[in-house]
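## Example pair
The file below holds two records. Each record gives the amino-acid sequence first, followed by its structure token line.
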Amino acid sequence: MNTSLELPVLPEYQLTPLPFLLPPIPDKLLTLLLPIAAYWSFSMLFHWIDEKDYFSQYRLHTPAEVLKRNHVSRWEVVRDVVIQQIIQTAVGWLLGMTEPDDFFGKEEYDVAVWARRIRMGQRAIPGLLSLAGINANELAKKIAGSYPTLAAALSGGVYPILVKDSSLHNGPQVSMPTFATWEILAANAMYWYIVPIAQFAVAIFIVDTWQYFLHRAMHMNKWLYTTFHSRHHRLYVPYAFGALYNHWFEGFLLDTLGASIAFKAAGFTTRQGMWFFTCSTIKTVDDHCGYALPWDPLQHLTSNNAGYHDIHHQSWGIKTNFSQPFFTFWDRFLGTVWTGGDVSARYARAKIMAQRKVDTESPTTVVSPTNITNTSSADSATANHAPYASELPNAIDLHALPASYQDPTAPMGKAAQQAAGSREQVLEDPRDGGKQILLEEAAEEKEARSMIRKSNRRRTASSLTQSDSLRGLRDRVTMHGRTGGILGMESSR
């Protein structure tokens, strides 16, 4: 018998219970506790930064806005977050009861299984090469002297020299095939790296998909919005520990159930789930932190960051930017990303107001986060209006209000449709939104413009060199834009 055509024997193994990662806490209990600990520790870090007024130049909103524009007390936020986390823990406990206990000792066996799959996959190589008119066996013979391993792979995984004498179950010695070095290396890469990365990619895709479509439904259906989701939008100025402030049913449906489905579908182990749930929690907190920090890696890994999600919390963008918590592909694929261009100027103006008592003579020291949405205001004119084509004519309540409620104005085109639909939704929910929200934003915009005009006049009158004056003008144009409307900023560079 030609043993080179047979598959190598899989090694024996003995399972041993996996020691606790953090004794004496069982891993399944730790999986429930870590996301809660991460939520409060990470959000309290941002709260401490808020209280100490550190990095104010990177704030998306001023402390005054947090107090003035939000329609829920911090105590109510904490209460509802704790309720959601209690439900989350109970569901997680039930989920853990369906999972087997974790063991180790089978790793070498599992790697060998992958090596076998790689060996079996090589049997398809001759047929695939024949489709291109290449005789695999002839090619293998030509290179066998210089590249014996490659020749064996091309001939369908036939390795006549890779055999060893061994006995099965204390029987007589027989020649058995073994794995090539490259097969073991590839199998280790599959088992330890490629498969786990694929599992996390599947879980991320499921969570993003689940949350996008449910979140979008919560906004497109008036009953769902006013009954459940409007509670979260009482926070027009998000802050870190308000990330999970939701109606309890929405929190279960959107966050807990979606993450549980992703856990099961991805085939996670307990420790993989521990990482996934904890990292998802940290990402959610970071998306609501209220800061565009240039050194925060979470805000640069994807375009779905604090600046992107903050637009969704504004009265003019509430029906856009539904994607959360990881990527924005559904928003971009289905046309629900904000198309009004970079809104950095809006936040820069608010920050200038906060700094006027400290730095009234030099507003350009404020650092503006750039390109928050990765779009251009020109997109508004050229983008397909779907799914917002009917928003502007259907904004009945909005049309009945004076033009002063429309400040800040959005660029013409799709962005105007998005802003109209968003503001109409605010007006349709008088309990948690209503006209007062639009009045507050319009007043804030008017005050910001007034402060900028005064600051610019003072700076023009100061004794600066011509070079400094031109540089200051360039910075102000870059920060605030050339046009009167601040939702779309046209940069001079």
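Second record, same layout:
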Amino acid sequence: MDRAKKPAAIPVSPIQPTPQVSISDDNSRVTANLPTGEQVDVLLYGATVISWKAANGKENLFLSSKAHLDGSKPVRGGIPLVFPVFGPPHPEHATGKLPQHGFARNSKWEYLGKSSSESSSLPNSTGDASVKLDFGLSNSMLADSKWNYHFNLTYSVTLSQDSLETSLVVRNTGSSNYDFHVLFHTYLAIDDINQITVSGLEKAAFKDKVQGGQEMQAAGKPISIESETDRIYNAPPEQAIKVLEHGKDRYELSRDMLSDVVVWNPWIEKAKGMADFGPEDGYKNMICVEAGSVSAWNTLEAGDTWEGGQRIKAL
């Protein structure tokens, strides 16, 4: 028998797609994909980001064709994490017995899990707008770090539709203060180094490592790469940095608590001399623009926490 007044049907919202995260069969890498097609790959060795792709498949990070991805040595390319020392060890410092660039990039990290942003409220939303992957490393996970301090590191990699964020939280879990450097050694993928300029550092003084660490005055113009380049610029974190190709914006870098920017390209001869750098002319297709805090030591008191990070926007 028909009822005169049927209850109205309860509207059902369509199920929105969500980011997908997978772990490789050998438990060596974590891959995250957004519903819109963006992707990031992170090796647990060094918590190294080795790939960041746009929705159309375009790769934003340079990875050497000879990079070791088996955990036998630090990865050449992507975003290696430098901690707790930048560059060669300092013989008279507590970091003196560590390998170059510290131990974070050649240690096995733990994958702690993922979190996603809430779905966008904008019309035609394609689901969650970002996904964050967390990785952890502590002194108890190292067999012999040659750095006798207690610490807990949480490294976060956040993939959004037009950007990638990396951030590090350093917790001093011991009873002694310690000093550290930190740097995101980002290898950006480009088409032609001869068509690249870097803006935002025109007023920044820098240390030229190619010239033996000579202190140089601000150049007053955008940076172009015409030979081996290895410079440490000191610039306030609120100063945005842009990489332009053919005069058009390609990447924009913003920083939090990181007052240094390293600009590096090995050029012809140095590229030939690095056994894990390839192809031989790969220097034409990469530029390192590295956010960090390395020109002076950061001192972390017992029980305290430090946090800093970067956001790279692909334009």
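Notes on the second record: Confidence is low (pLDDT under 50) at residues 119-127. The CA atoms of residues 46 and 107 lie 5 Å apart.
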